Amino acid sequence: MYDDIVELAKRRGFFWPSFSIYGGFAGFYDYGPLGVLLKDNIIRTWKESYMEDGAIFLDSPNITPEPVFRASGHLARFSDLAAECEKCKSKFKFESVLAFNKQDIIPANLEEAKKIASDTYLKCPVCGSRITNIYDFNLMYKVSGDYYLRPETAQGIFVNFKLLFNYNRGKLPMIVGQAGKGFRNEISPRQSLIRLREFNQCEIEVFLDPENLEFKSLYDYKKIKIKPNTGEELDITVKEAFERGLISSQAFAYFVLKTQNILENIGIESSKLRFRQHDPDERAHYASDSWDAEGLIDNEWFEIVGIANRTDFDLNNHQSSSGETMTTKIEEREFIPYVIEPSYGIDRILLTLMAQSLETRDGKNVLKIPYPVAPYHFAVFPLMKKENLKEKAEYIYENMKKQDKYIVYDEAGTIGKRYARQDEIGTPYCITVDYQTLEDNTVTVRSRDTAEQKRIKIEELLDLDFINSYIYKK
RNA sequence: GCGAUUGUGGUGUAGCCUGGUAUCACAGUGGCUUCCCAAGCCACUAACCCGGGUCCAAAUCCCGGCAAUCGCACCA
């Protein structure tokens, strides 16, 4: 299934490896014409859903000065001292070499590590030779000068907290979102969109009063697999999971539930989704608790959303580093807000959506994605390449575009072939002008999912209500 | 990053062992047919990952690079 998607994606213009005429570049992918539309629709679904909860948004730079990541802990935690055995070429984290050699010292920087290696005979855990080659491996991309490409969009929001909070007139809870690029110099990028070096993130930072970790009330929604780090796996609603004490706060549970809801709207069904809590040693340095939403592709689970309790970790660090106050007051109580962060990996969501939505009918691909996220909503065809049919079809195409831009026109090949083309890219409806159209001004509207058609009057087609009822089901 | 395997038009492939004109299908373009679920016919477009070596001659053999797949490691 995964291979089928990668093939389809390249052939039909969803996504493909970047820079291929120069031999390619591991960890980088381009979105093609249909991928751009699909990605934008996914992001829009995310954005509009959070706007319902009063979210505000930010767009901050990719290139970020070093002090930001010094404060956030990324400089320390996203870079590792590494060691290579020059004899057997094995590579290790420096700390694991120290542990193997029963050394308790923890070097603060590269200089100290090099000193340890020259003062002490450190044996290679694999071949036993002396290890001398110590270097810094940084997961963050450094650009010239003391600047880095951000490994997450979140810090842009934290460093803007005061301005954003002022904009929000000092009110908590405050929800801030940012859709943008993140960069990580992955050691081994794999599986196309799963592990990229430059990736699309939609991050949400929810700022809350730590004494009142509540948000809107929980509601009943579909059951889903819930896998806390105690080892059990339950099939219950998120609301039930909270009521059983599996999720630490009401607000955290709300955003888990919201994530389930957003993913459903994007087209990832709850039956192919689970929430898994991180083990304590698996968490990011900034998180006191984390749950991943994982999507199923080919019987394998992949993280597509990470929801972390970042507490006041980031604001606190930026307050100490910058000297700017990040506190607020409720009555006499002064505090730094707590943060819950649902972070959506858009590339992985897009891949999961496509993999989970691809079906075959009579040996032909049908991409059954929700209508509103489909790259095109409608395709318009003349039954045949005849002037009178073409003229009518072009009229419909031009006039429907006044209501909905996500429309494509096609007259090449047989009618069956054109239906198949659209099925494969998920277009919900095909509108065909035939001979009857010339007589009574009706066209056929053919559904992607059932292949059945209905006759509709052209004037009905050109009404906004038609799009609302057919695509948005309003 | 290590190891194994692989790299041929837009896609999927044959050819590679045994060096000599690169196969087929799909897709695409133009035309014929005049058409409701990938019909047919004709014509066309279009590829040996990159670099080096061996050889009269390299898609084919050898070396290096890049990339992909899988396993290990990594994934904060």
From TrEMBL:
GO terms for cellular component: cytoplasm. SUPFAM superfamilies: Class II aaRS ABD-related (SSF52954), Class II aaRS and biotin synthetases (SSF55681). It is found in: Cytoplasm. Its main location: cytoplasm. It is an enzyme of class 6 (ligase). InterPro entries: aa-tRNA-synt_IIb, aa-tRNA-synth_II, aa-tRNA-synth_II/BPL/LPL, Anticodon-bd, Anticodon-bd_dom_sf, Gly-tRNA_synthase/POLG2, GlyRS-like_core, tRNA-synt_gly. Residues 4-382 form the Aminoacyl-transfer RNA synthetases class-II family profile domain. GO terms for molecular function: ATP binding; glycine-tRNA ligase activity. It comes from the Archaea. GO terms for biological process: glycyl-tRNA aminoacylation; small molecule metabolic process. Its EC number is 6.1.1.14. The keyword GTP-binding does not apply. Keywords: Aminoacyl-tRNA synthetase, ATP-binding, Cytoplasm, Ligase, Nucleotide-binding, Protein biosynthesis. Gene3D superfamilies: Anticodon-binding domain, Bira Bifunctional Protein, Domain 2. Belongs to the class-II aminoacyl-tRNA synthetase family. This is glycine--tRNA ligase. It comes from Ferroplasma acidiphilum.
